[in-house]
Amino acid sequence: MIKAVYQVDFAPRVEKQLEKIPKNIRNLIVEKIENLATNPRPSNVEPLHGKDDGLFRIRQGDYRIVYSIQDYQLLVLIVRVAHRKEVYTKKHSYH
C-alpha cells in the first residue's frame, strides 16, 4: 500500500512565532511538524471545537501546534505555534 505524503505549509505569522521560541524547543517542534507530512493524524492529535472547529492540535512540551488538514489537496497548513497559555487566546491567522 502506498502512503500519501502531505505537503506542510505555514500561515505567514507562524515563522515569526517559531523565531520567538528557544532554539532547542523549536527544533523539537519543527520535527513534530515534519512528521505531519506522513501522518497528519498522529495518536495524540486533538480536534478543536467552537471557533476553531476544523482545526487540530498536537503538543510538544508546553507548546501547541495548531493546524488544518486538507485531505483533497494533501496539505497540512500550520496556522499557529504558541505556548499553551497563549495558543487559544489570540485569533488564528490563515493569511
Describe the structure.
It is built from two helices and five strands, in the order E-H-H-E-E-E-E. The protein has 95 residues and is an alpha+beta fold. It has a single domain (7-83), classed as RelE-like (YaeB-like fold, 2-Layer Sandwich). A five-stranded mixed β-sheet has the order 1-5-4-3-2. The longest helix is centred in the first third of the chain and has 13 residues, at 23-35. The mean pLDDT is 90.
Characteristic terms for this protein:
single chain, 95 residues, alpha+beta, YaeB-like fold, 5-stranded mixed beta sheet, 20% helix
The general outline is globular
Average predicted confidence as pLDDT = 90
Largest sheet: 5 strands, mixed
**CATH level-4 homologous superfamily:** RelE-like
CATH architecture: 2-Layer Sandwich
Q: What ranges have pLDDT less than 50 throughout 5 or more consecutive residues?
A: none
Structural domain tally: 1
The percentage helix is 10-25%
Terminal Cα span = 35 Å
Specify the number of helices: 2
Tell me the name of the CATH class: Alpha Beta
| Portion in beta strands | 25-35%
How much is the radius of gyration in Å? Answer: 13 Å
Strand order within the widest beta sheet = 1-5-4-3-2
Instruction: Spell the H/E element sequence.
Output: EHHEEEE
Number of strands: 5
Structural class: alpha+beta
